[in-house]
Amino acid sequence: MPEIPDLEAIRGFLNQRLPGVAIERAEYLIPVVFRVPKDEFVSTLPGDVFGETARRGKFLLFALRSGRVLVINAMLTGRFQYLQPDVKRRARTCLVFGLANGWDLRYADERLMGKVYLVAADALESVPQFAEMGPDALEVSREEFAQRIRRFTGQIKNIVVNLRFVAGIGNAYADEILFAARLHPYRKRTLLNEEDIERLHEAIHKVFDWATPIVAEQMREELNYEERRDFLKIHRRGGEPCPVCGTRISEITAGQRITSFCRNCQPG
Ligand SMILES: [Zn+2]
């Protein structure tokens, strides 16, 4: 599942290439991912011009000169590709933009769970999840973070991945963040002190600032990458020695979610 480092790397890649580039052709290939009618998509996008691409939580927001925003949530398996038009299309390529600079921007999605919206810039709240989404995990200040977290009870990992608290943290990076903050994933939020919460906020920046350039490097020239998380320190490393203290890393699977942590560095 693309998380903040993946989406930030894609955003950085596209912002070096897309602003000012016109769409010549818009192909609507697999209808199930679209939350915009086909006619509107294929007839109103050609001629429009890309601006800056932004991100909020796990959504990428492609600003267009017409004042609209193309909003994409890649969910579990969505992948963006920036390729020459003659490169063979991946199975389950859902949409293709033929660009005036001679490149294709494509979106493929193996499990077809992603969603593509086209909305006016002032109507982002109409996109499902936008209205209830908390501030982006990289935008929230330390004070707001500490204030918001008091509204949530239960285990800290569940709170960290809850988009109503802060948006953009998924299962894999939640493990990395809690490891960096030395917090046990199942610890109750009510048992965290001010210092723990401060460390947690710091760890979000530390982990994402570390991971984003690594992911960006993997994407190389064509944005055509397979998701590789083999550089992570704790997530899915159950049974291996903790990189800090050497204790065997614990791994618990609950509800199809894997949680990995070090019982020594992250005491319960
Ligand atoms: Zn450890």
Low-confidence stretches: none
Strand order of the largest sheet: 1-6-7-5
Largest sheet: 4 strands, antiparallel
Q: What is the structural class? A: alpha+beta
Number of strands: 10
**Tell me, what's the shape?**
globular
Average pLDDT score: 95
Beta-strand proportion: 15-25%
Helicity, in percent?
A: 25-40%
What sequence of helices (H) and strands (E) makes up the elements?
Answer: HEHEEEEEEEHHHHEE
Distance between the termini: 28 Å
What is the number of helices?
6
Ligand species: zinc ion
Radius of gyration: 20 Å
List keywords for this structure.
binds zinc ion; alpha+beta; four-stranded antiparallel β-sheet; globular; 6 helices; 10 strands; 268 residues
Structure in words:
The structure is a single chain. With 268 residues, the chain is of the alpha+beta class. The protein is built from 6 helices and 10 strands; from the N terminus they run H-E-H-E-E-E-E-E-E-E-H-H-H-H-E-E. The chain has helices at 4-15, 38-44, 142-149, 156-160, 171-180, 194-219, and strands at residues 23-28, 50-56, 59-64, 68-73, 78-83, 93-99, 104-109, 115-120, 250-254, 257-261. A 4-stranded antiparallel sheet has the order 1-6-7-5. The protein has a 4-stranded antiparallel sheet with strand order 2-3-4-8, covered by helices on one side. A hairpin with a 2-residue loop joins strand 2 (50-56) and strand 3. The longest helix is centred in the C-terminal third of the chain and has 26 residues, at 194-219. The two termini are 28 Å apart. The model has no long low-confidence stretch (mean pLDDT 95). The site of zinc ion has 7 residues, from loops.
